[in-house]
Automatic annotation (TrEMBL):
Protein name: Uncharacterized protein
Membrane topology field: Multi-pass membrane protein
Species this protein is from: Tetracentron sinense
Gene Ontology biological process terms in this record: auxin-activated signaling pathway
Homology family: Belongs to the tetraspanin (TM4SF) family.
Lineage: Eukaryota, Viridiplantae, Streptophyta, Embryophyta, Tracheophyta
Length: 275
């Protein structure tokens, strides 16, 4: 029905072929814009119902996540409102949808960390995460939080049947490999995932540079490699990867929606003023 909206108020149209052309173009565009907004809705559900990544709460990130979720609901509603009312208010509709999409684009670019120096002020940007995690006060809390999640206990019980070689082939998450076991460069002998013996002979592998983490490693289950640099790095990598992905998604969706709305606007105007 909305396809007729634009032509209704105008005089009956004689240039029928052109009009049908515009209409042929408009209907798929409308459907396309609507379909494009569905991943945004899916993201909302993911953002609002996702379990917090363990220990992320210490950096107050869940609040940001909910904020982005609410913004996406807004984008979803306004995008579809504009799609379905475009024939009545094409110009105000375009402006109304472009502003939130622009905000979404900027938010995504910040999360991806395009501007390295400025983005340290923006929560969850790669630089911001790095600064937070390298802050020792934060790190002490995160460290004990990681310990409390029993991630290393789970790793041991999951891999208890594995021999040294099979364990070395196993794919570990960056937190598991950073916090639960000594770095590979320490050339320690595997007993189980969280118990490693120092090789007695002085045959240390000279091909690796000296790693302070090898000193930090302790077989005490409450210490393991939680004091290692590799553990911080593993936690940082996990968070950065997650937030960068979210950023990329926001950028891509914002660009696609901007293109869809511009095309829709052009098609609507063309249909209106074609003669
Ligand atoms: C890992 O090996 C050590 C040393 O043999 C042992 O004390 C510890 O209980 C083992 N851990 C598990 C979970 O099997």
């Amino acid at each position: 029905m909305e396809e007729n909206g634009g032509t209704k108020e105008e005089t009956p149209d004689i240039t029928a072929p052109k009009a049908t052309q515009a209409k042929n173009f408009l209907a798929p565009l409308t459907i396309f814009s609507f379909i494009l907004s569905l991943p945004v809705l899916a993201l909302v559900i993911w953002l609002l119902y996702m379990k917090d990544y363990d220990c992320e709460i210490l950096l107050r990130l869940p609040r940001l996540r909910i904020g982005i979720g609410i913004w996406m609901i807004f984008v979803f509603l306004i995008s579809n409102a504009v799609v379905f009312c475009r024939s009545r208010f094409p110009m105000p509709g375009l402006v109304a949808v472009m502003v939130p999409l622009l905000v979404m684009l900027i938010m995504g670019l910040a999360l991806v960390g395009v501007s390295r120096t400025e983005s340290r002020a923006i929560p969850a940007s790669p630089m911001w995460l790095k600064l937070k995690i390298h802050d020792n006060n934060n790190w002490n809390n995160i460290k004990s939080c990681i310990y409390d999640t029993h991630i290393c206990d789970d790793l041991v019980s999951r891999t208890s049947s594995l021999k040294s070689y099979d364990f070395s082939l196993k794919k570990l998450s960056s937190i598991e490999s950073g916090c639960c076991k000594p770095p590979t460069s320490c050339v320690m002998e595997y007993v189980n995932a969280t118990f490693w013996e120092k090789e007695e002979d002085e045959a240390t592998d000279k091909s690796y540079p000296y790693d302070r983490d090898c000193e930090s490693w302790n077989n005490d289950q409450s210490r393991l490699c939680y004091n290692c640099y590799s553990c911080r790095q593993g936690f940082l990598t996990t968070l950065q990867r997650k937030w960068t992905r979210l950023g990329i998604f926001l950028v891509v969706m914002a660009i696609l929606l901007v293109i869809a709305h511009l095309l829709l606007f052009v098609a609507t105007m063309w249909e209106r003023y074609k003669d």
